[in-house]
Amino acid sequence: MTDVSETVATHPRKYDRLIERVRTLPAVPTAVAHPCSPSALEGATDAAAMNVITPILVGPRAKIEATAREAGIDVSGFELVEAAHSHEAAEKAVALVREGRAEILMKGSLHTDELLAAVVARDTGLRTDRRLSHCFIMDVPGHPQVLTITDAAINIFPTLEDKVHIVQNAIDLLHAIGTETPKVAILSAMETVNPKVPSTVEAAALCKMADRGQITGGVLDGPLAFDNAISPEAAAIKGIVSPVAGVADILVVPDLEAGNMLAKSLSFLMNADSAGIVLGARAPIILTSRADSVESRLASCAVAAMLCDHRRRRAPVAA
Question: 20 to 30 A from 190, CA-CA: which of 89, 101, 140, 224?
């Protein structure tokens, strides 16, 4: 299987290979919650034009149609489910996934917290036994492979138990996009275990949990400082012998603040593009931003579509 995480990063145009690969798959029905801004509508309709998703627009019909007219976007060919306001749009979009009419949930112009509140609702949401977590899939210019950063958007101060879910979610994501055995770096400020720095102790525990089969499908090492995780030269200078050091695919950050700063530093200082997706629910959840490039929006949709395809291919065949 082609490792998409490598080909995306080395292609002259960001994410083209990823988007081209997913275009060979059937378009995935996607519930778009409250797409009442030009950027929200464009994200959904651009992905539809590339045959990545089939949007179901959920929100106030009059407002959606007015936004489409003002932005010059044709939404006449898409199903529109009426919802009075953003809160109801989130609930109805989640219901479409629960009913099987949609396989992906996509954020429109409502607040992330409002959408996720509907997702985690105990009786009507999309909860599973996994904790929700977010992955940034980042194409950093000059770096040989795509970097997946987790969690920089959902879990503020994750516990060790939370991090088990965060790591497993990220590994499963990379399996879906073609990396058979992801290399996972558990980040901290140093590469040695120091009881005074809790993230180093948790990193060591996560690695031992992987050794015991409590985390599967990837190769873990940590604690590792950021430079030792992504730079073979830095790892060699420190004398770190590891299958992960210098070549990590996944960077697991200590907390949301560290992850958010890291992802935004790469975006604004290195001009990195990022696709974003929430994992751990019954369906992939696409979180788009007004600042996202067209390629980033399409890549987020493409990653979600590949996750759906991966789940379908792994689903047991009925007798």
Answer: 140
